[in-house]
Model the fold of this input.
Amino acid sequence: MFENLPEKVTIREVGPRDGLQNESQFIATPVKKEFIRRLVAAGLPHIEITSFVNPKWIPGLADCAEIGKEFAQVPGTVTSALVPNAKGLEGAKAAGLKEVSVFMSASESHNKANINKSIAETLRIFEELIPQIRQAGLAVEGMVSVVCGCPYEGAVEPRKVVEIAKTLLRYGATAIGLGDTVGVGTPLQVKRLLDMVIPEVGKDRIRLHLHDTQGTAVANAVAALELGVTHFDSSVGGLGGCPYAPGASGNVPTENLVYTLHGMGVKTGIDLHALLETGAWIQDQLGHPLPSNGLKAYLGRKVRAEQKATAAAS
Ligand code: HMG
Ligand code: MG
Done:
């Protein structure tokens, strides 16, 4: 074990998208902008900044055009956004983005709940959309959701995930995202899934998007790391969730993943202290506690240090 650790891992921060899409209150656009600026300053190499979806479905990201325009080009940081269809692509292109993700699910019920289509209908749309995205000069990830289980149907066949991933690659997707949307996967399950996906997709084109509902996300990431996967999604503070996956928690907290990777000698290029400060800042802005235990531990240490300093000064 741990004989195949990579030297470096690339983390895509999805808090501004997966996190803020799930907040019950609309987060003001200037707060979103400051959040993304702080993430850039903390050294996040890739940030998913928003979604060009119907604002009636996802009201929290109704300011996608403004956020897209502001952060389409950030020197030293890749920025990307979700697009479900041609209308979304128009928005992303108008903003000037260079990378997008199309998304669908490996179960019929979640696909219908999330994007109002059957899997077959979605694939027909993507068969046209993905080549259009490529012709426009953008990179495109094909994100496949509910790969470890569906909130409506339960178990999901890994063969279904492989089949969809291969189809999206054939249409021209440049990467494949694998989403444990409900956060129910376990390390052995993730290994078995990747053992089937890697030979078809290639480990360098896979990005793992883990939610942390059962607290297994870091363990799942380590299992994937052992198999050579080096691209991961996470969100600071453990923000996030899919509005169409009832009961699911946020993404694996970025600070927990970074702490684990750095502790194992794997580089991320991320400044953990600046990241934790960003987590503390966005938690204050949102006005409710975030689930991350890494963030809780950091804030606890900070309070103790302040108490010590006050005691020493008095
Ligand atoms: P629909 O109602 O079937 O779409 O929704 P439609 O094509 O029939 O159009 C209906 C209306 O929507 C029209 O407006 C369109 O203009 C408008 P109207 O004429 O009624 O005023 N519309 C749009 N507006 C803005 N932007 C667009 C757009 N497209 C159509 N792109 C649709 C289909 C996909 C649009 C809808 O279901 C939708 O927006 N769903 C959003 C789902 C979503 O964002 N879910 C959360 C993200 S996915 C996730 O979190 C999982 C992930 O994290 C990975 C993981 O965890 O596994 C990525
Ligand atoms: Mg997600």
Remarks:
- Strands lie at 10-13, 46-51, 78-82, 99-105, 139-145, 175-180, 206-210, 231-234.
